[in-house]
Design brief:
Elements (H helix, E strand, L loop, with lengths): L37 H28 L9 H11 L7 H20 L8 H10 L5 H19 L6 H18 L16
């Protein structure tokens, strides 16, 4: 072996500016390789977003297009309006009595949950006789009213205009008397309507 007298060279650390080119570099992070399925996920995400926007748009349109609910008109006010509208038929007693009778029957059905319009006068008065919703005087007044209307509607009775107005006034009186709950006297309990 041949001995060399050459001095040993020491490896010096790189210069502070990183000028050394032969030093060891750190490991690079892994590179993502596209699998080819990303477009499916992006398409599904776009469809989901479009569906959510469509649903919100429909809901907004429905809310804007829906008119506010009409105020509830109490039965006694509707009955008074029907009885006023019946005056246009005062020249025809039969039509007038049909309108007045229907207005009062509808009022009694709405106010007391009696099945008035679908029944004959006798059936209705029999049900009313057993129901505790009207006083005895009110029941007698109603029976008289319905019998006078039936005379005009079915027996072709021709009353005068003043008799027709009196008939309407008796219906208005009954509506006014029953439009509100009477105050309970002390010690009396009132059962709720059926």
């Amino acid at each position: 072996m041949r001995a060399t007298n050459a001095p040993l060279r020491l490896i010096q650390p790189p210069a502070p500016g990183g000028a050394a080119t032969n030093d060891i570099r750190s490991i690079k992070p892994p590179v993502d390789i596209p699998s080819g399925w990303e477009w499916v996920w992006w398409t599904l995400a776009a469809l989901a977003l479009a569906l959510a926007l469509w649903w919100l748009w429909r809901r907004w349109r429905a809310r804007v297009a829906t008119p506010p609910p009409a105020p509830v008109v109490p039965p006694h006010i509707r009955a008074r309006q029907r009885l006023e509208a019946a005056l246009r038929f005062i020249a025809d007693p039969r039509l007038f009595c049909i309108e007045v009778s229907d207005a009062l029957r509808l009022y009694l059905e709405e106010r007391f949950h009696l099945r008035a319009p679908e029944r004959t006068t006798e059936e209705f008065l029999e049900e009313l006789r057993r129901a505790p919703v009207l006083t005895t005087d009110q029941k007698a007044c109603l029976a008289d009213f319905l019998e006078r209307c039936d005379l005009v509607k079915f027996a072709r009775f021709e009353p005068t205009e003043s008799a027709l107005r009196e008939l309407r006034d008796s219906a208005l009186r009954l509506v006014d008397e029953t439009s509100h709950e009477p105050p309970a006297t002390p010690g009396e309990t009132k059962d709720p309507p059926p």
